[in-house]
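Recall that a protein's primary structure is simply its ordered list of amino acids. Everything else, from secondary elements to tertiary packing, is in principle encoded there. The following example makes that idea concrete.
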Amino acid sequence: SKATVSVLNCRNTTKPPTYIMGRDTSRAHQKKPSFKRTSPSSTNPYIYLLVKIYRFLARRAACPFNKTVLHRLMMSRTNLPPMTLSRIMLNMKGREDKTCVVVGTITDDTRLAEVPKLKVAALRITETARARIVKAGGEVMTLDQLAMKAPKGSNTVLLRGKRSARTVYKYFGAPGVPGDHARPKIPAKSKTGRKHERARGRRAGKAWKVKA
C-alpha cells in the first residue's frame, strides 16, 4: 500500500561515517628528544681526533673507562674544571704505581714545596706543571698516547676537578639570610658604605627583619 511505501522511504539510507586512524600528536606520547652531545662543540681538530679514537675504543674495547673518557671529551669547558698538582698528589697517595688521567687541564700549585714522582695523562698541562713533574722523575702523556699504552684503562685513576670552584658559584643562594653564606651581587662602591647590607630585611625599621 501507499502507507507501507512511505514508511520504507523514510528509512535512513545514509552510510555510517568512516573514521581514518590518525597519529597521536599529544606531547605525552611523543618521543622525548635527547640532548646528550654526540660531538664536541670545540673547533680544535685534536679534540675531534681524540673523540674518534675513544669512540672506536668504547665500541670495540668496551669498558667503563673508555665510555667515560669519550663522554668527558664532549663536555663543555665549565664541566671540565682544571686540577692542580696538590689535588692530584692527595688523590694519588698510596697509588703511585698507577697513572692519573685528567680529561682537562693540569695546573701548577706554587704552594706545593715538593712534587712526588707521578705518571699523568691529560688533555692539557701547563708548562710549569710539566716541568715539575718531569724534574721529579715522573711521566707526562697525552690522551692518544694513553690509548696506545692502556686501551682499556688498566692501572689508571680517572680524576676531575671541582666543578663548583668557579667564582660564580659563590653567588648562588640567598645572601643576607642567616645561615647562608652566598656572596651578594652589589656595586663595588657601596661595599664599604654605612648602609651596606643594612636595608630591607636587616633591620626592623626597613619593612621587616630576618629572625635569626
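Residues 52 and 118 are 28 Å apart (CA to CA). The first strand starts at residue 83 and ends at 84.
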